[in-house]
C-alpha cells in the first residue's frame, strides 16, 4: 500500500532480519525468539537450537534501526512503548515523534495508509477501500482471511491428521473459489482493484515457494492455475509492487526460523516463481 499510494518519501521502512533469534541473547533464562534488526558486520549465527546456517548478521536489505541506536530487536521497541504483554509481531507502524507504536495490525495499517496520509501521497486519489465497494470487500476479506491467509498456517501448524485434513479441505475449496472468480472478473472483489487484492496477493506470492512445501498445501499451486498466476502477475507488475517482494527474505524467514519444523534450516531452491511473475499477463482483457 505504501508503494501504491506513493508514500515512500514520508514513511520509511526498516526490514528486520528474516531469521528469528533470541531477543535477549545475554539472558540465558529468557527463551523468547523473534524478530531482530540487521547488524552489518556482525558475527554469523545459527538457528535457535544451534543448528543450520551460519546465517549472516544482515543480508543486503537488513539494516539497524535508524531511529534507536543500539536497539537489537522488535521486542525492544515494544518494551520502549510499554507493551510487554502481547506478542512482539511485525509489521509495526511507529510514530517517530511520540516514540510509540501506532498499530501492529496489518489490516489496520492498510486502512491507515489508504486514507490518513493523502496530503503527502503521490497517488492520493487511489482509494483501496472505496465506499461503494466496502460490503463486497469486507465479505471477501472475511472468507479469504479465514481459509487462505490463515488457512495456510492451519495446515502448516496442524498437530493432528484430522486438523490438517480439515484445514487443507477448506483451503483447497477457497483456492478453487478464487480460481473461479478470477476466470470471470479482473479482481477478487469485482472489477476494481482494492485492499482485498493486496490481502490475497501477499499469501499467493508465497504459496508455491513456501506454503506448498513447508505447510503441505500441495493440493493446488499458483504456477499451474492460469487465472491466479496471471492475476498475481498483474499485481506484481503494478508500479512499486515488485520492489516490495523479496523472495530470498521470504524463504529465509520461513525455512530458518522454526527449527521444530525444519531442524537444519535448509532452504529449498524453489521454482523461480518471481521469474514467472515478470512474464506478460492478459488480465486487461476481462
UniProtKB/TrEMBL annotation:
Matching Pfam families: GST_C_2, GST_N_2
A GO MF label: glutathione transferase activity
SUPFAM superfamilies: GST C-terminal domain-like (SSF47616)
Site features described as Lowers pKa of active site Cys, chain residue numbers: 211, 254
Annotated active site: 153 (proton donor/acceptor)
GO CC field: cytoplasm
InterPro entries: Glutathione-S-Trfase_C-like, Glutathione-S-Trfase_C_sf, Glutathione_S-Trfase_N, GST_Omega-like_C, GST_Omega/GSH
Ligand binding (glutathione): 35, 87-90, 105-106
Domain GST C-terminal, chain residue ranges per copy: 130-254
CDD domains: GST_C_Omega_like
Record protein name field: GST C-terminal domain-containing protein
Organism encoding this protein: Craspedostauros australis
Amino acid at each position: 500500500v505504501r508503494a501504491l499510494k506513493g508514500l515512500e518519501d514520508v514513511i520509511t521502512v526498516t526490514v528486520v532480519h528474516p531469521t528469528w533469534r533470541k531477543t535477549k541473547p545475554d539472558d540465558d533464562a529468557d527463551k523468547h525468539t523473534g524478530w531482530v534488526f540487521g547488524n552489518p558486520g556482525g558475527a554469523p549465527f545459527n538457528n535457535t537450537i544451534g543448528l543450520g546456517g551460519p546465517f549472516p548478521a544482515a543480508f543486503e536489505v537488513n539494516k539497524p534501526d535508524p531511529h534507536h541506536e543500539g536497539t537489537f530487536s522488535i521486542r525492544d521497541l515494544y518494551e520502549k512503548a510499554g507493551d510487554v504483554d502481547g506478542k512482539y509481531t511485525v509489521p509495526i507502524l511507529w510514530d517517530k515523534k511520540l516514540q510509540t507504536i501506532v498499530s501492529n495490525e496489518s489490516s489496520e495499517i492498510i486502512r491507515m495508509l489508504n486514507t490518513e496520509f493523502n496530503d503527502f501521497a503521490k497517488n492520493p486519489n487511489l482509494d483501496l477501500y472505496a465506499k461503494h465497494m466496502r460490503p463486497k470487500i469486507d465479505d471477501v476479506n472475511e472468507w479469504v482471511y479465514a481459509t487462505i491467509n490463515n488457512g495456510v498456517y492451519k495446515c502448516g501448524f496442524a498437530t493432528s491428521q484430522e486438523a490438517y485434513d480439515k484445514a487443507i479441505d477448506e483451503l483447497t475449496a477457497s483456492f478453487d473459489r478464487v480460481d473461479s472468480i478470477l476466470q470471470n472478473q479482473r479482481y477478487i472483489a469485482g472489477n476494481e482493484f482494492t485492499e482485498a487484492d493486496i490481502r490475497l496477493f501477499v499469501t499467493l506470492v508465497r504459496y508455491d515457494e513456501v506454503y506448498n512445501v513447508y505447510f503441505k498445501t500441495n493440493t493446488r499451486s499458483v504456477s499451474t492455475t492460469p487465472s491466479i498466476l496471471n492475476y498475481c502477475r498483474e499485481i506484481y507488475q503494478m508500479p512499486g509492487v515488485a520492489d516490495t517482494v523479496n523472495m530470498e527474505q521470504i524463504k529465509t524467514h520461513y525455512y530458518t526460523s522454526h527449527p521444530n519444523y525444519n531442524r537444519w534450516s535448509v532452504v529449498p531452491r524453489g521454482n523461480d516463481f518471481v521469474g514467472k511473475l515478470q512474464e506478460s499477463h492478459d488480465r486487461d482483457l476481462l
